[in-house]
Amino acid sequence: MDRDITIIGAGSTGLSAGLFLESLGYKPRIFEKRDRVKITKAIGINPVTLQLFEKYGLTKRFINNGWRLDCMNFWYNDDLIYKNQFSKVRHPYPFMVIQPQFETEQILEDYLSEKGIKIERNVELLKISNDRTSMNLEFKNINNDTNFSLQTDGIVIGADGNKSKVRQEIGVEMKGWEHPTEYTLYDIELETPISHKEGHYRFYRDGAMLMLHIRDGVWRVGGNLKDVLNYLPKDTKIGKTSWETNFTISEKVAQNYSVGNVHIIGDAAHIHSPLGGKGMNMCIEDSYIFSELFHQNREKEFSTIRRKRVQTTVGVLGQLTEVVGGQHFIGRVMRGSMKPFSFLFPVFMPYMRNFLLGLK
Predict the structure, then answer these.
(1) 72 closest CA partner among 360, 355, 279
(2) Do 250 and 271 form a contact (C-beta atoms < 8 A)?
(3) How many CB atoms lie within 10 A of CB 265?
(4) Please, are residues 25 and 2 in contact by the beta-carbon 8 Å criterion?
(5) CA angle 282, 283, 284 (to 5 degrees)
(6) Taking a C-beta distance cutoff of 8 angstroms, is the pair 104, 45 a contact?
(7) Closest listed residue to residue 49, CA positions, set 20, 89, 10, 72
């Protein structure tokens, strides 16, 4: 295929876009301003994503590299209230694969390398300008501090994250809101009596927390509790912290995903609550949908088709986050005591199960 494609950003979004486009016969150029970094970030690959990568042989690589999460447990204090078994879902992959995002990205990059596509790293986009027939992209080579230009009559895909330079260059704003509650997130070594083969949502009068084993005794622990590590299960031993961050959660969607021949996908187009592990998976869905539309010469429809679906999902995530964060009255009531409401769990947990797995 002779259509020029330039992808800005080589995270999971840009790499998956490169993979899907390569499979359709294109040879995109992928630029990334960073060198490789080993930051865990997203850790869950859902069934939809696993199915998308199946025909490329990558699903087996993901499953063999990570571990299968088959169940999420819901606790109130130290009492187990409900086990949400993913095996009840009718799907070829009724589970999530847990592995650090940088390992997911390495598998994607290795695949592209096998197909002859190399990531051009330490190259930063500075400016996008247009004339009547083409675009001029100005870059900086960070290694030798020199600038260069690329003239293209093709398309540019901005997959460069929530602080997207591409989005800035085309003048598209993000619209939405920010939750007031501050969250703390750790990747930390733990010895704990609860199962490392299952995930755990733990609710308390003061807030909520997530516990999910990544590998080799390192757990993802996060929540809106003050001094969240003080709420770990009884007899848990704390080891070394490999990553820690404090943040607030925003629910925002770009006003438009396409301006002329420039398109934004992934976190460049939407940011939202990490609740439910949607982030990386929605970004990869963006990449797949855009690639298919582009191959049909319908890329101008991407914003119309995809944005409405994303807005709906972001809205649901926002409501769930308000419940967990205690801003919603249901969350405040359940913080008092979850046990009286336990009879409702079998009613709404099938929906939650499908939502968590990306099937709703």
Answers:
(1) 355
(2) yes
(3) 34
(4) no
(5) 90
(6) yes
(7) 20
Contact 168, 24 (CB under 8 A): no
Q: How confident is the model over 125-177, as pLDDT tens digits?
A: 999 998 778 999 999 999 999 999 999 999 999 999 999 999 999 999 999 99
User: DSSP letters along 33-96, please?
Assistant: SS---------EE-HHHHHHTGGGTHHHHHHHHSEEE-EEEEEETTEEEEEEEGGGS-SSS-SE
Quick one: average pLDDT of 82-104? 95
Q: What whole-number distance in Å separates Cα of residue 346 and Cα of residue 334?
A: 16
Distance CA 308, CA 324 (A): 25
Question: In 3D, which of 163, 341, 176, 183 has the Cα closest to residue 275?
Answer: 183
Q: Collapse the DSSP code of 255 into the 3-class scheme (helix H, G, I; strand E, B; otherwise coil) and give the result.
A: coil
Q: What tens digit of pLDDT does each residue of 111-130 get?
A: 999 999 999 999 999 999 98
Cα dihedral sign for 222, 224, 226, 232?
negative
216: CB partners within 8 A, 6+ apart: none
Q: Which residues does 231 contact at the CB level (< 8 Å), separation at least 6?
A: 202, 204, 206, 209, 223, 225
Q: Delineate the domains of the chain, giving CATH numbers in brackets.
A: 5-69+90-178+249-356 (3.50.50.60), 181-248 (3.30.70.2450)
Q: Do 12 and 283 form a contact (C-beta atoms < 8 A)?
A: yes
Q: Please state the pTM of the whole predicted model.
A: 0.93
- What percent of the chain stands above pLDDT 90? 77
Q: Which residues pair with 71 in a beta bridge?
A: 85
